[in-house]
Design the sequence.
């Protein structure tokens, strides 16, 4: 797969909106530089290019090759300063940092009283917005200034600041331990996916318990609770306890609804919490709750009060459309879901510098699954090839594995069995490199390897045998997750009953719904 050369400065310029570009040029004008300034000329050149090309820049003659990196670095810095001044990027976090910078300048000028006044306001704002790390920095600077600015109340003030520093430090240490644990568990999940047996469950449980700090839930603030719910959520995901996933994702989302100001300050965490809530409901096949949660989620992100920037826009698209796919998978409404594909592919073009490759490939897997469910197997294969041929990709092993298995099934369904033996061998080689395969995967590969030796009139009998074997795994907590990536049982039933897979899944959905 050919990769377009990416340059950080070029990507930054291409991410700017029209108003941000206009603001940058106004900002440059205020600097007092003329219109022929080299870095402004470079900005205009890069703005007009469709792809980054250093040769084109050098041909313009504004700078020699040896000086280009310095000019680019200067332009990059000026764009960031301009963006920082843009009202659309102002939030409480930036305002607190700005006040801390102002107070530091005043302190160095010896204007202690003015500095302390600003710090006191900034500290109140930081604590109110759960910015306890910067609140601790502010207290530490207050201590330094108070030690030089002698007042009659210094002894009381010293005690007050010492107690405040200690409390903030303890809260920051707890939040740090919980955030570390959450991140480590998430990293483990990306690397290996769900646990596949009792020994893995035991290892993850010990890992989690050894690193979970002691806490009193009644003493935790918003930030500490958020990291606690995150850590517990990832532990629940890893151990495939989806009821607990639902429990902690609900606590996470409710925490934001109980503290609405935090949605505005931490919109990314709000988006992620909703995504994991929907994912848990998807795994639990709770259709009505899933639908309600998705509607509320999409409605909230479209409200005028909901914060907006490029990052939030990209993440909202990522989470909402992933779950729109999942809704069709629950319902078995594959044909109805096909129009989503064109929307997603078009939006992915505009988000190409904002959505990482892993998530793009997850979309491709969902698109392939949608086409497979709709019976469009060649289109399914086309998107699976994008995943399988991407040698640089770092994705979850289980997703890579099922991409290959679905590829085999789609080739079989499409009647492209002339190279099925080669595909089976390459898939088998890939799978044996993985540790602790699902039994579902082992049985399926065994079946496919023997498929070439079966007479056509005996194929249905073999489908029935495999179906019986795989049904044994359907309620096994360590094996059942395999059916969420690829509903092999429904596929087998479609072959046995000679009906489209979409119809089989849809009938199951309506039967469960009407029970």
Sequence:
């Amino acid at each position: 797969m050919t990769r377009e050369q990416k340059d950080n400065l070029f990507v930054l310029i291409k991410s700017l909106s029209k108003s941000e570009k206009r603001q940058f040029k106004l900002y440059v004008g205020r600097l007092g530089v003329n219109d022929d300034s080299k870095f402004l000329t470079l900005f205009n050149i890069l703005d007009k290019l469709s792809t980054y090309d250093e040769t084109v820049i050098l041909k313009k003659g504004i700078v020699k090759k040896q000086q280009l990196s310095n000019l680019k670095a200067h332009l990059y810095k000026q764009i960031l300063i301009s963006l920082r001044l843009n009202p659309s990027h102002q939030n409480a976090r930036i305002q607190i940092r700005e006040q801390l910078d102002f107070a530091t300048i005043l302190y160095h000028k010896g204007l202690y009283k003015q500095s302390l006044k600003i710090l006191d306001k900034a500290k109140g704002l930081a604590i109110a917005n759960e910015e306890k790390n910067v609140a601790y920095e502010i207290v530490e600077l207050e201590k330094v200034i108070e030690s030089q600015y002698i007042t009659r109340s210094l002894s009381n003030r010293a005690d007050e600041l010492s107690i405040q520093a200690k409390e903030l430090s303890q809260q920051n240490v707890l939040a740090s331990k919980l955030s570390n644990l959450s991140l480590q568990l998430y990293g483990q999940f990306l690397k290996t996916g769900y646990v596949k047996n009792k020994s893995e469950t035991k290892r993850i449980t010990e890992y989690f318990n050894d690193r979970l700090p002691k806490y009193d839930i009644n003493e935790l603030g918003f930030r500490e609770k958020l990291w606690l719910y995150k850590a517990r959520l990832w532990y629940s995901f890893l151990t495939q306890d989806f009821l607990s996933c639902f429990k902690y994702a609900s606590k996470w989302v409710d925490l934001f609804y109980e503290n609405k100001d935090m949605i505005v300050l931490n919109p990314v965490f709000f988006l992620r919490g909703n995504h994991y809530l929907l994912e848990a409901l998807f795994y639990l096949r709770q259709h009505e709750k899933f639908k309600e949660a998705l509607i509320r989620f999409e409605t909230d992100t479209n409200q005028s009060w909901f914060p907006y920037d490029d990052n939030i826009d990209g993440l909202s698209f990522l989470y909402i459309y992933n779950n729109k796919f999942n809704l069709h998978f629950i319902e078995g409404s594959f044909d109805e879901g096909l129009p989503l594909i064109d929307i997603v592919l078009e939006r992915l073009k505009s988000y190409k510098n904002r959505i990482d490759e892993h998530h793009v490939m997850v979309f491709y897997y969902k698109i392939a699954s949608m086409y497979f469910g709709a019976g469009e197997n060649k289109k399914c294969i086309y998107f699976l090839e994008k995943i399988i041929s991407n040698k640089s990709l770092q994705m979850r092993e289980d997703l890579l594995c099922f991409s290959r298995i679905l590829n085999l099934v789609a080739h079989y369904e499409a009647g492209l069995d002339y190279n099925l033996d080669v595909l089976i061998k390459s898939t088998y080689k890939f799978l044996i490199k993985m540790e602790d395969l699902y039994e579902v995967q082992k049985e399926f590969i065994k079946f496919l390897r023997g498929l070439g030796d079966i007479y056509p009139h005996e194929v249905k009998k073999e489908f029935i045998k495999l179906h019986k074997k795989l049904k044994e795994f359907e309620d096994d907590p360590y094996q059942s997750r395999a059916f969420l990536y690829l509903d092999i049982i429904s596929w087998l039933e479609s072959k046995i009953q000679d009906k489209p897979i979409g119809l089989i899944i849809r009938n199951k959905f309506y039967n469960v719904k009407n029970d």
User: Anything to note?
Assistant: The first helix runs from residue 8 to 15. The mean pLDDT is 85.
